[in-house]
Amino acid sequence: MDTATAGLALKPKDYKSDIKPVWCPGCGDFAVLNAITKALAFKELPREEVAMITGIGCSSRIAAYTSVYGFHGVHGRALAVAAGLKAARPELTVLVAGGDGDGLSIGGNHFIHACRRNMDLTYVIMDNEVYGMTKGQASPTTAADWTRSKLTPHGTGIRPFQPAAMALTAGASFVARGFSGDPNGLAKILVEAIEHPGFSFVQVLSPCLTFRPEQKEWKGAVQPFAGEATDDPVVAAARLQADGPMATGILYRNPGYPAYRPVSEVSARVEDYEEEFAL
Fold first, then answer.
1. Domain ranges for the chain
2. Could you tell me the CATH superfamily of domain 21-276?
3. Which residues in the chain land under pLDDT 50?
4. Residue in 224, 207, 203 with CA at minimum distance from that of residue 216
5. Does the first or last residue of the chain, that is N or C, have fewer Cβ atoms within 10 Å of its Cβ?
6. Most distant CA pair in the chain: distance in Å?
7. pLDDT value for 68
8. What is the pTM of this model?
9. Which long-range contacts does 139-144 make (Cβ < 8 Å, 24+ apart)?
10. Please, what is the Cα angle at 145 between 140 and 149, to 5 degrees?
């Protein structure tokens, strides 16, 4: 880790690595990267005190494009890796990033249990409703009647997941939705997500113009949630249904919900267990 700028105020560009992103032109993930680095700069977090953990997919490349500590893990396991890191190094600011496929398909089980465990992590899912890296297959958030994929030419016929509703139901104590077309607004959401003392989930509507060119229309469809964030999950659930899947902003936060705290003291030694099995 370069310590030349340690103790100095860092700018968003200082949180970016020298590796040039290989996302397609027009990909929303460029703006998500900008929003993340803006949020880190606003928080003035030393780079050596931040970790970015990612899974597999287009969006998960983001770990390589930042200058903080990073780990590019296996498919769907980013939250498991992040939880282990946070348990071992609770003083670190740990961000987790991935896509709708990585986080909600193979990683879906980790996702719901991370929400209910409420460990102090910030999880960003860049949702483009398609598997972009593997050339345009339907993902868990793809509409049932989407027919552009050669694998599902008649649509999937399966109801799509609603990530924010899943996070709320599973017990996340901070739930928000942002739009990559509003990077400044997304950066503000991420600042509050990082500051929140518990599991923060941020769904980002991030268009894939290569395989979902119709998502250009998202810019004219997004609108803010009606009302301020609530700490009542019932109110939040009703607002999700009423405002629809294109509403953005902070939906729910409950700072009073106790965050998971790993046991800080070892209560047993390996030798104690070995004695039980001694012949």
1. 21-276
2. Thiamin diphosphate (ThDP)-binding fold, Pyr/PP domains (3.40.50.970)
3. 1-7
4. 207
5. C
6. 72
7. 97
8. 0.90
9. 139/99, 139/100, 139/101, 139/104, 139/105, 140/100, 140/101, 140/104, 140/105, 140/108, 141/100, 141/104
10. 70
